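sorry for the late reply, my laptop died twice this morning and i had to redo everyting from scratch. anyway the thing you sent over, i finally got around to it. pasting the sequence first so we're on the same page, its 281 residues, then the predicted structure underneath. double check i copied it right bc i was rushing
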Amino acid sequence: MLRKDPLLHFLVIGGLLFVTLSWLGRTSAPMSPQRIVITAEQVAELARSAELLQGRPPTDEELQDLVREAVREEVYYRRALALELDVNDDEVRRRLVEKMQYLTEDTADPDPPQADVEAYFAANAAQFRIPELVTFDQVFFSPRMRGDSVLTDADESLQAMQGGASPEAFGDSTPLDGRFEAADPERVRILFGEALTEAVFAEAMNVWLGPFESDFGWHLVRIIDRRSERDPQYAEVEVLVHEAYAAQRLERANETAFAQARAYFDIAVQWEAGKDAEVWP
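ok and here's the structure:
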């Protein structure tokens, strides 16, 4: 049965690794830690890679962050080797780092006391504050389909709809919804841009407005409902609170596990060729 279930294999192996890591965690760091040196060549390569990705050289602070990640990776890699997690495979380094992180995640309590979660909610109420929400209808006019007449068509349709004409008789097909229910400002801004967002959160309701330009084209909108920003009851956001609390606990567990693994190493960084390596804090 065990041979036929890869997931069961993974769980069994993970459990054994967790026991091993827990046993090692009870022992003190070696009297003579291994030395890790991030060389000037490595620092330069990190800087080059960052420049390729973002189109500019990294700042000093960004380079510090890159080196910090390189140190973290090397520490996890060496500790993984010490635990004999390695195999002869092209992706072994990445996989070993992942395994060390998985072991850390396994130590997080999957079912924390409810009182602790509610206390976290009370202490972080601003994080779960419900923003102002708006429900509105929109009618779309496509520049691709209408060409130079798109604004004229939109203005004429606006006058007709303000006079009581049905919105179904106007506009063009679009993958966007005709009605947006309880949309927050960020969602509206991403889809429609700043001008339309300001309008639906400020202008009068039940009146057709526009046209407003977005990346898609032009829109007429009618605000149906607006709800003010407010602090929710715990029951309204219970799932979100549990997720946020679990993420915080996992982050702390990761930092604790890294600090324990870090104690096995002396670390230095050679920032420039020809200069001595400096002790990494």
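The first helix runs from residue 6 to 25.
thats about all i looked at so far, will dig more tmrw
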